[in-house]
Amino acid sequence: GRKRETVGQANASWSETGPVCLREPTVENISPIKIPLGEAATLTCVAKGSNLSFFWTVPKNKSLITGTDKETHSEMFTNTLKFAAVTQDDNGTYRCFVKNKASNASTTTDMIVVEPPTAPMLEQPILSSRNASFHWNSSFFDGNDPIRKFFLHSVQQGTKVKHSIAVDKTSNHHTISNLQPFSNYTFYVTAMNGQGNSSASRNFTLPTLQDTPDAGPNFTAVAVSSTAINISWVEIDREHANGIVLGYEVIYGMNNDDTVREEVNHTGEQHNLQMSSLSIFAEYNISIRGRTAIGWGTFSKIMTVRTLATEPPKFNLSSLENPDTWPKSPTTLTFHVYGASRRHGRIKKYEVYAIYHGQTAPTAIV
Description:
Layout: E1 26-27, E2 33-36, E3 41-48, E4 53-58, E5 62-63, E6 70-74, E7 78-83, E8 92-99, E9 104-114, E10 121-122, E11 126-127, E12 132-137, E13 149-156, E14 162-168, E15 173-176, E16 184-193, E17 196-197, E18 204-207, E19 219-223, E20 229-234, H1 238-241, E21 247-254, E22 257-265, E23 270-275, E24 283-291, E25 303-306, E26 316-317, E27 337-338, E28 353-354, E29 363-364
Parallel strand pairs: 2-9
Antiparallel strand pairs: 1-3, 3-7, 4-5, 4-8, 6-7, 8-9, 10-12, 11-12, 12-15, 13-14, 13-16, 16-17, 16-18, 19-20, 20-23, 21-22, 21-24, 24-25, 26-27, 28-29
């Protein structure tokens, strides 16, 4: 309505006041934001209406307390909430309230504070000689950002060999293969999201189990007589032993026939064996393998060695044994040599000697 006011008696004037028309407030939606841990962030509330007042509630419906880490700045139709460096406590739902004497309005938005995930919880791996099976607990903090991959890490002790295997994000178990038997490894797992990699999980240092040797020892073989060959070898190296070597087996024979096997217990780093009662001037194929508690391993590369030859025999001259058969006036003598065999080795040449009448020493004639 109107109000009439008289000012003075002689000099009167009118002033009029009417009701103030207030527009009810409306507020625009605020887009949610994803912000890395420790970075600055801003939430802006935009509204329409008359004589607007703003205030905020923070996650868990608590009233906003401004300070060194948060502050607000208002203009006629906006209010900005500023964060100096977000923490995980800032993660959650924010509500902006706008009001005047006519009504009020509000809107909500989410701030997602993202960071690298925490480390998965690795259970103790199960090991065989060459494999390790892993299982980890999936109930760890993903940093508010979906996990993209897991990584399994293995470090062989005493070496600089490190392997990392990527595992699909949907899995929480995996098996690593091709490990070195009877070796100590340190195992751990990490997770990765869009912000980076987690720290390492609890690690386990465990030995793989023994296996059979995957190579025989290096050895030498030397013929020492026409019927004996000496063999010597050193321990199988650790890389190929795959465990504690308990003994060795030497196998030898001629052309894979009449194969002989001799087992030698492990007595130290140096080993020796004499193959005796062998055939004269014969080739022998020789190989050696080792044994762990798991069983016999792979044979070494075959080595071929020939025993030595004996001295040539004293030959008989078959055509000259009976003097009655000799020609009375010989100009040519024909005779056959026999008595040599393969075991005497390869005959390089023959020499024929004659003792003439009146002589005591033989004379070489051929």
